[in-house]
Amino acid sequence: MISQVTIENFKRFKAPTEFVLKPEGVTFLAGGNNSGKSTLLQALAVWEFARSVIEVNKGKAALLDSSSGQGVGVSAEEFSPVVLPNLKHLWSNLKVANGAGGGYTLRIRCDWQTVTNPPTDRHLEFGFALANDRLFLKRTTSNLAPGDSIPRMAYLPPFAGITPHEERMSPAARKRWMGRGLAGAVLRNLLYDFWDQNGKAQEQARGLNGRIPKSERAKILKNDSWEQLLQVLEEVFKTGLSVNPFNELYHTTINVAAWDGQLANKKFQKKPGAPKKDLMVEGSGFLQWLSVYALALNKELDVLLLDEPDAHLHPTLQGYLIHKLGQLARENRKQVLLATHSTTILSETKVEQIFRMEDRDYLIDEGGRVRLFEGLGSQYAPRLDQLKRCRRLFLHDGPSDLEILQAWAKTLGHTWPDNLVCWKYTKEKDAREILFAELRAEIHGLQAISLQDRDDYRFTDTKENLTFASPSLFQKGLGLRRWRRRNIENYLLHPAAIARAAGKTEQDIREFLQTVHGLSVTMNFKDSNCPQTLANTDGKEIITKNTRSVTVEFGVDYKKIAEAMFPEEIPDDVKTLLQQLVDLCKL
What we know:
Blueprint: E1 2-8, E2 17-20, E3 25-30, H1 37-58, E4 72-75, E5 106-113, E6 121-131, E7 134-142, E8 153-156, H2 171-179, H3 187-205, H4 214-223, H5 225-237, E9 239-243, E10 256-264, E11 267-270, E12 277-278, H6 284-296, E13 303-307, H7 315-332, E14 335-339, H8 343-348, E15 354-356, E16 361-362, H9 366-376, H10 382-390, E17 392-396, H11 399-411, E18 421-424, H12 429-442, E19 447-452, E20 478-482, H13 495-502, H14 506-517, H15 532-535, H16 539-545, H17 550-554, H18 558-564, H19 572-584
Parallel strand pairs: 3-14, 3-15, 8-13, 13-14, 17-18, 17-19, 19-20
Antiparallel strand pairs: 1-2, 1-5, 4-7, 5-6, 6-7, 9-10, 10-11, 10-12, 15-16
Helix pairs in contact: 5-6, 6-7, 11-18, 13-14, 13-18
């Protein structure tokens, strides 16, 4: 994967500029407007375009160290990686005057390591010249040898451009639409390819009896891009996709429809009476997610260049998309370069994955993250601006935790404080203290409560007021809190509430918990000093994560259970925490 990019005379980077990157996983390109995030991604898209043009016209041998010869010319109409008023806009200050190297004054170089053992450093640079409105590109330097692999990249701008009808397109036509910033115009083509490949894989796996063996079916479910995409859409949006066969002899457009589904007999199926709707009428968040994730599943690509893929997405979906992209990058050894202004994303990811464009380097500590947020400005850091105004902060483990707490607060008659900034932050105690110290250095009078699941810490380490260390309340302004039970979902394991949410009898739920999970809930469920067996139970596993979880078996999620609880059923620890939040916001 790409370990270094060097750009000269391209857009805002006039002098030779180097970007040293981490070759695997997700890198978050962060910085203010005009810091170069999109420019870096577009430079790589132009490099990929040059590679494909030279390889198609002259063969892969033209990219090797030993090759020589003239460049390849393309017209403005043939130039597809990014949309421009004219090709002069590729050059810094629009100056394309001849210089050293026969007029090839714009240069883009990529360095990477081969996957051989031992790995070998490789580089490939392209130069660009403009003459008579025709762009010439050539390999200017390379150390490639025969047989070396070259990373394949794809650039995806924010979602736009979906049309009522989409024709079957060639790869070149698709790249042109993507380069224009109209990824929606080729979305159906990409989905059709996945669906078609899936059909061929199933056909190949069928035995003589016309059935697919279980082992082969399992392989397809695990490795096939179409199956992986469907699984994620079912999980996140409760939505399925249908594709119509395409025959080029009498079909002109590709038809892909979305439909609302539900889990029935452990299979995801279309809801009875639910219509099939063309993709065009779906929400922008769904389409943004679909385009990004479909591109990420493309097995032919090594490097994904994503420009603000969080656009149109709710913060919860932003976090889930980043989680899934990271998972794909790890499992398929992909590199993802992702430009973002989202403080939600930048606050929740590891600092060592954040590349600050102004410094051309990765962050090394929490102080760098806070300084980055300050530099983003009020347009992109509304949470920081709000924090400066109200000076009250609640650090929590995730959006689901917050939804559960807010549901309980409503049931108990607490008005959720409107002067409280809620910030997901999954780091451990020490990291939270560092983050708080950096924030407080900028925001005088800041006060906070930090809440975490207990996980594997001992039950007896957490006191009834949810403190777990010797410092007194709000020492240094930060009140550290930890649940007495293993996690917040543990407090949802009330059979009567689950029964109401699921439309079942309480006895049904008790038998399920006892038989499937070995859990017997007693009368003192709500007590802070509940039995340690209950306190140590992994509620997250029982409610949502297990293959026989409450969500899977009864079709109810954590929020519905929380909303179904009566005031007298809500555990004492929850009431303690909610009162502390109310008191915090009165200070």
